[in-house]
């Protein structure tokens, strides 16, 4: 049954200008949550179809302005679609309005939806939840008491925003950096200083790059920790933020003007407002590279495989004259997708790693699936992290002496259909609204993917020539955080028990 709430949401989305609607999504909304945010939780939703509007150029009677985005490809319009030019996210970067009459790869569609400077999800009104004063965990009776206190602060935070400017479409984003400040950042700093003193001190400066720094809280927590506990290292420390969002870069710069000057860090920090994929400087010095909750929003390609031949087909997106989105699969793979398939095969074979695949199972069963009514000859989609592979290439080419510290979700519940499939969601009236496809109106939805570290770790090593290890979020924090500071009176420790669906991958040598 179609949901009236979802239909109302989409009408609201299309009735607002992009600049009035775009901010960062909650994971999940704590004011509505009934449990700690260890994993994503959402239900499935479709859009209701109101009375059909007047048809525009390129439309047919079979289409509806509010139809679900996973409808069948309109083959009667193939000839029309073939005339559309192929574009990329880089080509669309200068556009101020969402494109029409174009074709592109799925990864370019996702990249454009999330990062376009004018209408992308991360490019407007970014609101990141800050709890204010750090939680005093030893005075809290239990983890449940912490959660209730956090819910109260979350509600008060958004109430204050609504008092200034009510917004049913506001999106909020919270991270472990903010929820467990300063202890989460101090754990990262403890590892960095230990590794730096073991390998590079005093012959090299401590250079830290952080990608996607949010409010800048991690930066301040790390620099405070190093200054207070290791003044000799602090003198050698340089901190550089690489931030693709102009709005967040401005927010971080404002934070420097208030917090960092008061703390004395201003001369330690440089904010570089550009995408890491536009980086053109060669950094030969040893450095640490922080990528915390960044991989999940890297664009992916989608592949389907022929049940009988095993041949891969790559996803493309068509945008018609009125902005309606359609997906089709082509037997021709672009060089990036080909490279990923070859790299993954070689890296996983070398490390003896098996990876999930739509054709896993017997050839006989796959042949039977191809004969089932309505299934078609292609498998369900597999989403491959091609943009993450390109990030590893960037580390290899521009930061050859880096040490990567990354953390992200290895599992996300209630994702769309497919292997390694994303969660696609937006927030409306403080409630999460999910959809069942990544083909959504550009800029209004968070599209986040799980990271398969069993595959990513050997892929990283195969590209960069550097070895890495992966641990759970809790195991890493147990080894490097001051866990007594985050333990409640009954012995529970939210820093260790939350984010159980997250892993940490670090370069070892």
TrEMBL record:
Residues 54-66 have a biased composition (Basic and acidic residues). Transmembrane segments: none annotated. Residues 29-53 have a biased composition (Low complexity). Its EC number is 2.1.1.320. Pfam families: Methyltransf_28. Belongs to the NDUFAF7 family. This is Protein arginine methyltransferase NDUFAF7. The lineage of its organism: Eukaryota, Fungi, Dikarya, Ascomycota, Pezizomycotina.
């Amino acid at each position: 049954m179609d949901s009236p709430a979802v239909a109302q949401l989409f009408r609201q989305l299309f009735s607002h200008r992009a600049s009035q609607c775009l901010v960062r999504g909650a994971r999940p909304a704590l004011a509505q949550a009934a449990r700690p945010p260890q994993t994503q939780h959402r239900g499935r939703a479709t859009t209701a179809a109101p009375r059909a509007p007047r048809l525009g150029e390129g439309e047919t009677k079979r289409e509806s302005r509010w139809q679900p985005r996973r409808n069948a490809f309109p083959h009667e319009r193939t000839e029309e679609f073939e005339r559309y030019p192929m574009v990329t996210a880089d080509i669309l970067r200068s556009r101020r309005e969402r494109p029409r009459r174009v074709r592109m790869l799925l990864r370019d569609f996702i990249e454009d939806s999330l990062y376009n400077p004018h209408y992308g999800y991360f490019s407007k009104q970014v609101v990141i939840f800050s709890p204010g004063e750090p939680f005093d965990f030893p005075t809290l009776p239990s983890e449940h008491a912490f959660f209730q206190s956090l819910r109260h602060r979350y509600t008060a935070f958004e109430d204050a925003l609504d008092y200034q400017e009510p917004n049913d479409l506001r999106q909020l984003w919270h991270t472990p950096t903010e929820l467990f400040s300063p202890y989460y950042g101090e754990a990262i700093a403890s590892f960095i200083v230990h590794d730096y003193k073991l390998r590079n001190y005093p012959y090299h400066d401590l250079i830290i790059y952080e990608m996607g720094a949010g409010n800048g809280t991690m930066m301040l927590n790390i620099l405070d920790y190093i200054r207070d506990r290791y003044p000799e290292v602090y003198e050698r420390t340089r901190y550089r933020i690489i931030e693709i969002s102009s709005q967040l870069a401005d927010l971080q710069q404002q934070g420097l003007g208030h917090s960092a000057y008061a703390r004395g860090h201003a001369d330690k920090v440089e904010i570089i407002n550009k995408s890491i994929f536009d980086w053109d400087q060669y950094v030969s010095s040893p450095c640490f590279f922080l990528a915390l909750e960044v991989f999940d929003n890297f664009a992916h390609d989608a592949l389907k495989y022929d049940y009988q031949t095993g041949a891969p087909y790559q996803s493309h997106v068509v945008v018609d004259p009125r902005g309606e989105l359609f997906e089709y699969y082509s037997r021709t793979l672009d060089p990036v997708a080909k490279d990923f398939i070859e790299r993954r095969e070689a890296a996983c074979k070398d490390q003896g790693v098996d990876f999930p695949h739509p054709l896993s199972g017997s050839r006989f069963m796959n042949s039977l699936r191809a004969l089932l009514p309505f299934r078609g000859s292609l498998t369900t989609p597999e989403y491959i992290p091609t943009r993450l592979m390109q990030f590893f290439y960037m580390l290899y080419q521009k930061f050859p002496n880096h040490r990567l510290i990354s953390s992200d979700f290895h599992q996300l519940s209630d994702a769309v259909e497919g292997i390694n499939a994303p969660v696609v969601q937006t927030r409306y009236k403080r409630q999460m609204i999910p959809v069942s496809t990544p083909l959504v109106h550009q800029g209004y939805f968070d599209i986040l993917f799980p990271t398969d570290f069993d595959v990513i770790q050997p892929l990283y090593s195969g590209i960069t020539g550097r070895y890495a290890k992966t641990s759970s979020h809790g195991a890493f924090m147990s080894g490097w955080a001051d866990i007594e500071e985050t333990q409640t009176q009954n012995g529970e420790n939210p820093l260790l028990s939350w984010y159980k669906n997250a892993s940490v991958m670090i370069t070892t040598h």
